[in-house]
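Task 17 of the worksheet. Students: predict the tertiary structure of the chain below and write it out as structure tokens. Keep your answer in the requested format; marks are given for formatting as well as content.
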Amino acid sequence: MSIGNSPEDDRPSIEDDGPATAPDGPSIGRVLQQARIAAGLTVDEVSSATRVRIPIVHAIEGDDFSRCGGDVYARGHIRTFAQAVGIDPAPLVAQYDDEHGGRPAPTPPAPLFDAERIRPEPRRPNWTAAMVAAIVVVVGFVGFTMFGGSDKGKGHSSVAEGPAQHKPNSPAASPQAPKAPAPKPTPAPSDSAIAAVPADKVTVKVTAVNDKSWISAKDHNGKMLFDGLLEKGQAQTFQDGEKVDLILGNAGAIELYVNGKKIDSKFDDGQVERLSYTKGDPQAG
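Model answer:
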């Protein structure tokens, strides 16, 4: 043992390929090792706390930073090691930079116009297509408003009639009718009214007599026959070979004739009713 060396002095010798100790103070590895010992920590504990592998911890304490994988990783290992043993990492990182050529200059960011050059040109909105689509929607809506309510169903599925027509036992369907509703007649429909209804189909007539009401009607296949608002005094008639499904939004304002017979069910104002009718004697679903 050389005179003047203490047993605790386990600094790496020149034969250990470690860098020479800085003349103005202890090396980075020596400072970290002494701080670890002073903190009462083992190499395994430092490795667990910093997530730095045990061989690299030993190498750092021997001032061998070649196993860190580069200057960036070496600085990171020194910083986390110092924090784990409770000392300020800044002087050690600065010492590392002094001993290894200094911190490299940051890479300048690419010019903004380079990024703009590779950015795809935003697509301009196709106003022509949007205008054409809007025109088609408006024309379709106007056509439905003008003809949808009065166009009778063509084929076997359904018939949707336009504004109310005068039939036996039905109130006058005139917009100029007085606000006070006329009393509903109670006698059963005449034989002529029943005979006018096809026996092989279900026929439903809906009239808004007391107030306006939103209604929806579908055939047995679920096809929409009508979906809209009936103003007071207006009526719609629907036909299908098997079944007509109704939804009445304000059932108390509605008068129903099914297969030529008046439905005497009493509905409340504002009540929503879901009804289904088939051929023959009317039976609410």
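Marker's comment: The chain is about 30% helix and 15% strand. The helical segments are 28-38, 43-50, 54-61, 71-85, 89-99, 112-118, 127-148, 191-195.
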